[in-house]
Specification:
The chain is α/β, with parallel strands linked by helices and 327 residues long. The protein has two domains: 205 residues, Rossmann fold; 79 residues, Alpha-Beta Plaits, CATH 3.30.70. The protein contains twelve helices and 15 strands. The longest helix is centred in the middle third of the chain and has 15 residues. The N and C termini lie close together (11 Å). Bound molecules: adenosine-5'-triphosphate.
Length: 327
């Protein structure tokens, strides 16, 4: 659906976006994350055709944005960070104007405006001047103009910026609804946002793509929890030979001999490049084959805030295997 290849953009001698490549499939909701100044808005502006890259290409459904900007722009919707809304215009007039710019005409235009009003629930505000709207309603008007014409790709720059918790909730529901028929890329520096609505995260650090992975992959840490009746000596012997494991740590005291079937918790560190599911399956087989009790084996979950901090403070880079394979 969206193919971005080696995208680079400089402001004077400063490289704001540096050789960024990724692809996004149909129906995905992808979060573009990064600290203030990381380069998110610059990427969004290039994806929307508002800003030209110095290098690289952007293709939507195989069509190059630079070679055929009009055609590509008709299939995308863009909510910019700062809405270019005209304060003196009423909501209805503004949507009519936005629909004309998108090339919509006659009955199709009217039907599309109605659909966008309904989807964003702004029917009660149609005759209000935009200047009188709350921040949340302005944002909804911005989304309404972005979804006119049923774009295949929706680019949302900080869609919940400045919204209160209720408005944020509404906006997230709306994005999920829109994603049923479109691919969505949204920028944010709020990790809960990504947790709440995205399938995948791209983390930008100093203009470069540091992480491109599905959320389910990012949430896995490199640790497994094993609960078994085996004592630590048995566990170490059994698991020593497993290539997928780096270390084993017993988390609880060995029980006294008086207890018939001990229950011992272990934390196992996965070796680099090994999938938690794969290694868990092998461990489960080994424990059962040794005729010991297997009470539980689970992957520890990592919180995304920690990952985000690590990525920004160090040189952590993550490219998940699924994403690489899909590319
Ligand atoms: N028009 C411009 N001229 C010069 N420098 C710019 C311009 N626009 C952005 N920059 C710089 O490029 C870098 C990336 O900016 P960008 O707005 O893309 O970051 P961002 O990740 O969207 O940040 P934020 O989260 O604060 O919105 C920043 O260092 C910024 O100061």
């Amino acid at each position: 659906m969206l193919e971005v290849s080696q995208l680079t953009r400089c402001y004077g001698s400063f490289k704001a976006v540096d050789n960024v490549s990724f692809t996004i499939g149909k129906g995905e909701i992808v979060g573009l994350l990064g600290h203030n100044g990381a380069g998110k808005t610059t990427i969004m502006k290039m994806l929307s055709g508002y800003l030209e890259p110095n290098q690289g290409t952007i293709k939507i459904d195989g069509v190059d944005l630079q070679l055929d900007p009009k055609r590509v722009q008709q299939s995308l919707g863009y909510l910019p960070e700062n809405l270019p809304v005209y304060p003196e215009m009423s909501v209805a007039d503004y949507l009519d104007y936005a629909a004309e710019i998108k090339g919509l005409t006659n009955n199709h235009k009217i039907a599309e405006i109605k659909r966008a009003i309904q989807a964003t629930d702004i029917g009660a505000k149609l005759l209000e001047p935009i200047a009188n709207l709350s921040r949340g309603y302005k944002q909804r008007v911005g989304v309404a103009q972005a979804i006119l014409g049923q774009p295949k790709l929706l680019i949302l720059d900080e869609p919940t910026n400045g919204l209160d918790p209720t408005q944020t909730d509404h906006m997230r529901q709306l994005i999920r609804e829109i994603a049923k028929n479109a691919t969505v890329i949204l920028s944010t520096h709020i990790m809960q946002e990504v947790n709440a609505i995205c399938d995948r995260a791209l983390i930008i650090r100093h203009g470069q793509l540091a992480v491109d992975a599905k959320l389910e992959t990012l949430r896995f840490s490199h640790f497994l929890r094993l609960v078994t009746s085996m004592n630590s000596k048995q566990v170490k012997t059994l698991l020593e030979t497993l290539p997928g494991l780096e270390s084993v740590e017993a988390l609880e005291q060995e029980p006294s001999k008086a207890v018939k079937t001990p229950v011992i918790h272990y934390r196992l560190k996965l070796a680099e490049g090994h999938s938690p599911l794969e290694v868990s399956a092998v461990i489960a087989q080994q424990v059962v084959a040794a005729k010991a009790q297997l009470y539980a084996i689970t992957a520890e979950h990592r919180d995304l805030e920690t990952l985000f901090r690590e990525v920004n403070e160090s040189s952590v880079t993550v490219q998940s295997q699924e994403v690489k394979n899909a590319a």
